[in-house]
Amino acid sequence: MTITKTQRDILGSSALRPDGISKVQGDFAFSSDLHAQNMLWGATLRSPHPYARIVSIDVSAAWKIAGVECVITADDVPGQLTYGLISEDQPVFAKDFVRYMGEPIAAVAADHPETCRRALAAITVVYEVLTPLTNPEHAIDGTHEPIHPDGNVIRRQRIVHGDANATAPIVVEGTYDIGMQDQAFLGTESALALPDHDGAGIEVFVATQWLHEDRKQMAKCLGLPEEKVRLVLGGVGGAFGAREDISLQVHTALLAMRTGRPVKMQYGREESFFGHVHRHPAQIWMRHHANSDGRIVKIEARFVFDGGAYSSTSSAVLINGVTHTQGPYQCPNAIVDGYAVRTNNPPCGAMRGFGVVQACFAHEGQMDKLAAATGIDEVEIRLRNIIHTGDTMITGQVLESVAPLERCIRETAAMPLPPEMGEKPHELDLPGGSGRTADRRNIVRGIGWGVSMKNLMYSEGFDDYSTARCTLTNGSVELKFATSEVGQGFVTLAPQIARSVLGVDHVTYDTIDTQIGSAGSTSASRQTWMSGGAVDGACRMVRERLFEHVGAIHHVDPLRLAIDDTDIIDTIGTLRISVQEASANFSVSETYEYHHRTTEDLDENGQGNCHVAFAFVAHRAVVDVDVELGLVKVVQIATAQDVGRVLNPMSVTGQIEGGIAQGLGLAVMEEIIVTNGIVRNPSFTDYLLPTALDAPQVLISMIEEPDPQAPMGAKGVGEAPCISVTPAIVAAIRNATGKSIDRCPVRPQDICF
Amino acid sequence: MSELEHYTLTINGESRDVLDAWIGESLLYVLRERLGLPGSKGACEQGECGSCTVYVDNAAVCSCLVMAATAVGTQIATVEGLNEDGSLTDVQEAFVTEGAVQCGFCTPGLVMAVHHLLDHNDSPSEQEIKEALSGNICRCTGYGRIFAAVDTVISVRKGISS
Questions:
Q1: CB atoms within 10 A of CB A575
Q2: Which end of chain B is more exposed for a tag (fewer CB within 10 A), N or C?
């Protein structure tokens, strides 16, 4: 069969993925599919202890194993011994101490993965096991000795806004716990490193979210100038934040440089659980003061984010958390205190929603408590408090983004509810599914709400620009960018932009690598806005040059020319010429760097214009709960999301449905269980992910109110779907059971006992 | 390594020699690393995610759980065997056109699972579809577009225009 299309794949169409055919055929090259002649396999030795002093490391037996070509430890790192996204506190290999279970200690390169496994087993490490610091409160109060020389608190941030003494007749408070979630992308970490023939540099094919940041950190550790480190995006099997930090990049490159041979490294699933950062577990206390009409007067809050052993992006996660204390609601007065700390738990960093997931779980729990305390309906209480464009937030920042929040809530509320469960439901529709244990008589239905706002792009003065090049030759366009395609569909969107701006149909994109300026990270719902803005800008510059060319030939002022479908027209004359014809024997190439507006740091009282822009969303969840067994079936999620402008309806639908599944996972299924620093469930057998049987019906409304600040009016859509769906589901469980449940994921024992 | 074996597998109808292989290698490893068939993906190594789904004697199995050397004498079919002339099967086409592909890592396994389902049941119920696909984890899509793709194939096969 062949796919035929009837319309042009411009902005607004459901253009198909350019990599779709190769992906369904199994031809698409993920980084784990790459091979090189004479290639070795790499593998990593990791600590079994969450906290220990390394007394000695003996690698001599590993070297003696036939097929082993290289064994490296911290002593073999030629450059900087540590790396990190914000603070460079994470060792390439542990040297004196291991600070979390799974911390890398050594790496080997050998002829076969099994040889690697045997080599790792032959390395002898003598540890002096220490008592791990696992309670983040002990990191704050100093009852445990610091695990880092510079202390355990990564960052503390207060927000003091308005009248600290303000109060109101209705006061509700709660303490909310959010579990540690794993991104669980399917394509585990993998890289192929190729030493340059001159021996002076390295080329690495890697699945990552941000090629240039990887290169910067790698070059420092490898002791190479950045221009000697070339990164190429290997096919990426999902990311969700877990590929923002370095994992195996330095190890693989170092093994290749040492052996002079290509080295491939690929984590198995268990190693992947130890090889990347997770979503921060957090404990959040909030106290809302409100008038009897439900209007919020003041919020007090305290956040503790457990960053685990190393800093990663914890300080930015903290800022996202505390600055979203109020959620999408007006709040004139606030006192917030927040900590991100280091412990001997697994390192935590970026995951879809980035700090806002945690804040939202707390503020939405509070809104339901406020509804109960005032006797106001949970939809009405939210509508009465919603924030509007022009309102001042608790940071003092004025909300400039378009904020169609009322529409989000009302359109969600207007969606049909699912039919009641019949008396004899199919067994797979029962909570617990095919376990066939749920009893129809014990099943209670519940409905719950969640509403959220999420910042887009990077904050606090960071200039996360993006770069793109557009080359028009004989009616065809080639785009070049370093934007990581992790599955989200930028490679679909970028050609759509070029077709719309330039009136061409044939658009290709070059290899995604570091041979052009940075695109920033595929994170923070930012690539449609940032790299989309860069592609749009580059295409517009090329269009200007094309109009000059056409204007000169046809003696028309280029400013009178415009694109109409695939033609260039004179808007006040008769000229009409196809872009194809107009660009024959014409070639032009332009590069554009897109920057978002500047932001600023927060001051000591948490005041400052720290965020670029915001997106809004509402979720309504319907659940069936077996109240005897504590089993939950999420029946339906209704959602209306502020997207600015829909650039590809099918892609947006996919982001919304996929984000909802991840939020559902955090609500009722997914948690990395850590006891005393030991990870108990690093496998897909024990860490449960939503399957097809867990997928609820999803009703979607995309709210289109183009944002004038966004390059194409479109807001990023990646994170919003996964944020307030979690509290909506938990609220529905509360509604069904009458239980006060202030943690996620909700476990059977939280319902039954 | 000293303990190396030679054996022959039958894959997509062709006889393929596996030389100097460690006896502990899974079928997934041999397909991907020795025989140049990387379409089957590895994501969990314990039969939970279905990314490595192949057919062994027409049964859909996780190739990560099959020792390659025990598959001698069986008929093995991989995603690469679905379309040797380069064209797409109806399931593959529907995955592309309905947006069932995002990162694509789960896709080959899911394509195999859907073909297997529809080869054995041409009009599955919603529950039967969900159960048949519940051994294949997708982390990107939330399954909505995958269900849409399956529905499209069923409709087209029945001659109902969608």
A1: 18
A2: C
* Average per-residue pLDDT for chain A: 97
Query: Nearest C-alpha of chain B: how many angstroms from A566?
Result: 24
pLDDT at A11: 98
Average pLDDT over residues A440-454: 97
- Domain annotation covers residue B13: yes
Per the CB < 8 A criterion, the answer to whether A311 and A90 are in contact is yes
Residue in A303, A259, A273, A311 with CA at minimum distance from that of residue A85: A311
Distance CA A110, CA A114 (A): 9
Question: Which of A56-60, A165-169, A436-440, B34-38 comes out lowest in average pLDDT?
Answer: A436-440
Question: Distance, in angstroms, between B69 CA and closest chain A CA?
Answer: 16
How many whole angstroms separate alpha carbon A42 and alpha carbon A36? 13
Interface check for A66 against chain B (CB to CB < 8 A): the answer is: yes
- Which of the residue ranges A198-202, A507-511, A572-576, B21-25 would you say has the lowest mean pLDDT? A198-202
If one counts the domains in chain B, the total is: 2
What residue of B is the nearest CA neighbor of A1? Answer: B88
Residues 6+ apart with CB under 8 A from A209: A236, A239, A241, A243, A244, A484, A486, A521, A522, A523
Residues in chain B: 162
Q: What is the pTM of this model?
A: 0.98
* B12 & B40 share domain: yes
Query: Where a domain ends, among B33, B53, B80?
Result: B80
Instruction: Give the number of A-B residue pairs with CB atoms closer than 8 Å.
Output: 201
The answer, yes or no, to whether residue A564 has pLDDT greater than 50, is yes
CB-closest option in A25, A112, A489 to B102 = A489
Percentage of the residues of chain A whose pLDDT score is greater than 90:
96
Give A300's Cβ-side CA count (13 Å radius).
13
ipTM of the complex: 0.98
Write the CATH number for B70: 3.10.20.30
Taking an 8 Å cut-off on Cβ atoms, the answer to whether B141 and A660 are in contact is: no
pLDDT at B162 over 60: no
**Any B CB within 8 A of A572 CB:** no
Is the pLDDT at A6 greater than 70? The verdict is no
Range 67-96 of B in CB contact (< 8 A) with A = 78-80, 82-83, 87-90, 92-93, 95-96
Task: Kindly identify which residue of chain A lies nearest to residue B110, measuring between CA atoms.
Answer: A24
pLDDT value at residue A418: 98
Task: Give yes or no for a cis peptide into A745 (omega within 30° of 0).
Answer: yes
Same domain, B67 and B105: no
Residues B68 and B97 in one domain: no
To 10 degrees, the CA torsion angle through A174, A177, A178, A180? 170
Question: Above 70 in pLDDT, residue A221?
Answer: yes
Range of the domain at B107: 90-157
- CA dist B68 and A22 (Å) reads 26
